[in-house]
């Protein structure tokens, strides 16, 4: 069976999906190119002194890594020349970014326009350790006839995403996307510089025996989370009557990818330490795109209290608690929290 390239895949999907118009195809093709370029920058790593931390602090109050800025610039450069991108929100920028093409042809914008929210480099704390990192993106429809979409335009519930995806920069570069018609995974063929479909229709088993959470925060968790993890740790001797394994990579892309490949549940709950800021992970460019992918693969995603894709954001850098993966595990976590 000859390998299917990303462009061949998109042509086939266009026959099936009415919303996959030429504008959205061009946005997705540019995002894939931005991921290829970022993969190259990550792979060059120490050779280009890009594994270092910078003195600059981003809008999250976090020290930026050189690769946070390099990858951010790569994504902006692609958007600057794509007329179908009306505005961007990035983890690394305080406000909405307007692509340069808007300056040149202010009143000639195409009908098919989209808003991009993205995390240019996810898992930044792993950059200098050569542990897998990635990029995460979310594509929303742009409200009609708005020349320069303000922050308000981005405050749409995640269920309105038309496309979402992530790239993972591991020993091979992978691109996982959903267009609302299942989840497909591509691998970058270094010999042809093409993304090739390698895992079509990824599915998450409804049950799991592997969980991921940063255990060092245990003393700050709510009682319901203490109970859920406690029961997993009791294993076959406890009420769950089965043993659980544990993983924590500290790169959300790697955690979600593991869950798409072999199942499990990933949790970064809102606890007493981070309650004031609402959580750790960001709704628009981490929780929403990953929740769309996970749900499209048959899993579930919540804050432990409500479905993430139903949340109407308050602001562009809003943080939320995240519990995602195997449906039955997420439902159990929700049940313990909502009881
Ligand atoms: O350092 P911690 O608390 O384990 O948090 C790890 C989490 O933080 C993140 O690194 C946050 O993302 P960024 O690296 O994009 O800021 C997630 O990828 C990961 O799941
Ligand atoms: Mg991130
Ligand atoms: Mg990041």
UniProtKB/TrEMBL annotation:
Enzyme Commission identifier(s): 3.1.3.11
Residues reported to bind substrate: 122-125, 214, 280
Listed Gene3D superfamilies: 3.40.190.80, Fructose-1,6-Bisphosphatase, subunit A, domain 1 (3.30.540.10)
InterPro entries the record matches: FBPase_C_dom (IPR044015), FBPase_class-1 (IPR000146), FBPase_N (IPR033391), FBPtase (IPR028343), Fructose_bisphosphatase_AS (IPR020548)
MF-aspect GO terms: fructose 1,6-bisphosphate 1-phosphatase activity; magnesium ion binding
UniProt signal peptide: none
EC primary class: hydrolase
Location of the Fructose-1-6-bisphosphatase class I N-terminal domain: 5-199
Cofactor: how and how many bound: Binds 2 magnesium ions per subunit.
Location(s), subcellular: Cytoplasm
Catalytic activity from the UniProt record: beta-D-fructose 1,6-bisphosphate + H2O = beta-D-fructose 6-phosphate + phosphate
Keywords: Carbohydrate metabolism, Cytoplasm, Hydrolase, Magnesium, Metal-binding
Residues binding Mg(2+) 2, per UniProt: 119, 122, 286
Gene Ontology biological process terms from the UniProt entry: fructose 1,6-bisphosphate metabolic process; fructose 6-phosphate metabolic process; fructose metabolic process; gluconeogenesis; sucrose biosynthetic process
Primary localisation category: cytoplasm
An annotated GO cellular component: cytosol
Binding, Mg(2+) 1: 91, 119, 121
Entry annotated with the keyword Signal: no
Pfam families named among the record's database cross-references: FBPase, FBPase_C
Entry-linked NCBIfam families: PRK09293.1-3 (NF006779)
Description of how the protein assembles with itself and partners: Homotetramer.
Family: Belongs to the FBPase class 1 family.
Protein name: Fructose-1,6-bisphosphatase class 1
Organism this protein belongs to: Methyloradius palustris
Higher taxonomy: Bacteria, Pseudomonadati, Pseudomonadota, Betaproteobacteria, Nitrosomonadales
């Amino acid at each position: 069976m000859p390998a299917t390239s990303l462009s061949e895949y998109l042509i086939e999907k266009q026959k099936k999906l009415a919303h996959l118009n030429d504008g959205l195809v061009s946005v997705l093709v540019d995002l894939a190119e931005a991921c290829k370029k970022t993969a190259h920058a990550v792979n060059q790593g120490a050779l280009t002194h890009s594994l270092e931390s910078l003195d600059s602090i981003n809008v999250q109050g976090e020290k930026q890594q050189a690769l946070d800025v390099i990858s951010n610039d790569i994504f902006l450069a692609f958007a600057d020349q794509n007329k179908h991108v009306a505005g961007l929100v990035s983890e690394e920028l305080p406000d909405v970014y307007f692509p340069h093409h808007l300056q040149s042809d202010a009143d000639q914008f195409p009908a098919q326009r989209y808003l991009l929210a993205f995390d240019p480099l996810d898992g930044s704390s792993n950059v200098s350790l050569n542990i897998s990192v990635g990029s995460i993106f979310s594509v929303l429809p742009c409200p009609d006839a708005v020349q320069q979409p303000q922050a308000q335009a981005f405050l749409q519930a995640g269920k309105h995403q038309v496309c979402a995806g992530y790239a993972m920069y591991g020993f091979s570069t992978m691109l996982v996307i959903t267009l609302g018609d299942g989840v497909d995974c591509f691998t970058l063929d270094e010999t042809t510089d093409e993304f090739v479909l390698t895992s079509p229709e990824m599915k998450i088993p409804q049950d799991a025996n592997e969980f991921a959470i940063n255990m060092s925060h245990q003393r700050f968790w709510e009682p319901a989370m203490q109970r859920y993890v406690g029961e997993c740790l009791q294993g076959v001797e406890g009420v769950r009557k089965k043993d659980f394994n544990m993983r924590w990579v500290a790169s959300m892309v790697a955690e979600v990818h593991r869950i798409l490949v072999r199942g499990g549940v990933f949790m970064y709950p809102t606890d007493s330490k981070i309650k004031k800021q609402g959580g750790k992970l960001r709704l628009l460019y981490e929780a929403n795109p990953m929740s769309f992918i996970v749900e499209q693969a048959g899993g579930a995603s919540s804050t432990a209290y409500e479905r993430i894709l139903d949340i109407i954001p308050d602001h562009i850098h809003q943080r939320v608690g995240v519990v995602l993966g195997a449906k039955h595990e997420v439902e159990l976590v929700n049940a313990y929290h909502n009881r």
